[in-house]
Amino acid sequence: MSVRIQPMICGWLEVDTKFILQDQPGRVKLPIPSFLIEHPKGRAIFDSGLHRELQKGSERLGGLGRVFKVYYKAGEDLAAQLEARQIAPERIDYLINSHLHFDHVGGNADLPNAKLILQRREWEAAGDPELAKRNGYNRADFDLGQQLQLIDGEHDLFGDGSVMCIPTYGHTAGHQSLGVRTANGEEVLTADSCYMRKVLDEMVLPPFAHSYDDMRKVIERFRAMERAGARLIFGHDAAQWREDGSPAAAL
Ligand SMILES: [Zn+2]
Predict the structure, then answer these.
(1) 237 Cα to the center of ligand 1, angstroms
(2) By three-state DSSP, how is residue 1 classified?
(3) For the chain, which has fewer Cβ within 10 Å, the N-terminal or C-terminal residue?
(4) For each of the chain's 251 residues, which pLDDT tens digit applies?
(5) How many angstroms separate the alpha carbon of residue 192 from the centre of ligand 1?
(6) Is 0.70 topped by the overall pTM?
(7) How far is the CA of 36 from the centre of ligand 1 (A)?
(8) CA 39 to ligand 1 center in whole angstroms
(9) From ligand 1's centre to the CA of 1, what distance in Å?
(10) What is the Cα–Cα distance from 165 to 177, expressed in whole angstroms?
(11) H or E stretch at 45
C-alpha cells in the first residue's frame, strides 16, 4: 500500500528572529505548511495553515498582529488548495494538529467532517486558562464541534504503521509530530518541535517553551532518526520551500 504526501504552504509569516530563536539577530520569513496525506484507507491533513481571514488583515491575531507580518494571498488557504487538487474539503477524514498555535489550526474550520486527532495533553492545556493565555490559543480556531479523538502518546492512524503520531512534547504541553512511510522512505513532519535545520544542528531553541528539557530530548531523537535515514521536514524552514510554496526537494 502506498502513502503519498502532498505538501502545501498556507501563507508566510515574517518576524524578528529573536521572537522564535533565542538571541538571534535579524528578521526571518517562515513558511506555514500543511500536508495532505493520502492512504488507501482515507485522507488526512497534518496542520491546516493560517486562517483565511488573515488574507484581509491581521486583526484576528490580536496583539500577535504587531509581532508577525502576514503574507497570505487568496487561493493559498487550505480549502482553496484542496479544491485546486479536485478534493472537496468535506471529504477529508482525519485532521491531525501538531498543536493548537494559530499558524497550525487556521484551516480547521474548513474540514467539517474530519475527525480531529490531538494529544490529550494539548487539548487539556487549551482548556487551562493560564496555559491557554500564555500560548495565545484561540478556541475559535479549533473548538468547532468536529468529532474529537484524544490520544496519549504514539498513535497508528491506519493500523499499518504507515502514518504514526509521535509525541514530541516540549514546544507545547502536548505537541506531536507525524511519521509517514512513503515509497521514498521515512518522512518525519516535525512541526514546531524543530522549527528549522539550525535548531537541529545547533540546538538553538525558542525564547519560550513548555519544557526545555523535553524539547532537547526531542531534538536528540530527531537527530537519531535522521542518522537512521529518515527525512525531516521542519516546522518553518524557508530553505525547504520555494517562494511559490512548492517543496525545494521532492517528498
Ligand atoms: Zn508554528
Answers:
(1) 10
(2) coil
(3) N
(4) 689 999 999 999 999 999 999 999 999 999 999 999 999 999 999 999 999 999 999 999 999 999 999 999 999 999 999 999 999 999 999 999 999 999 999 999 999 999 999 999 999 999 999 999 989 899 999 999 999 999 999 999 999 999 999 999 999 999 999 999 999 899 999 999 999 999 999 999 999 999 999 999 999 999 999 999 999 999 999 999 998 888 888 76
(5) 5
(6) yes
(7) 17
(8) 25
(9) 31
(10) 6
(11) strand 42-48
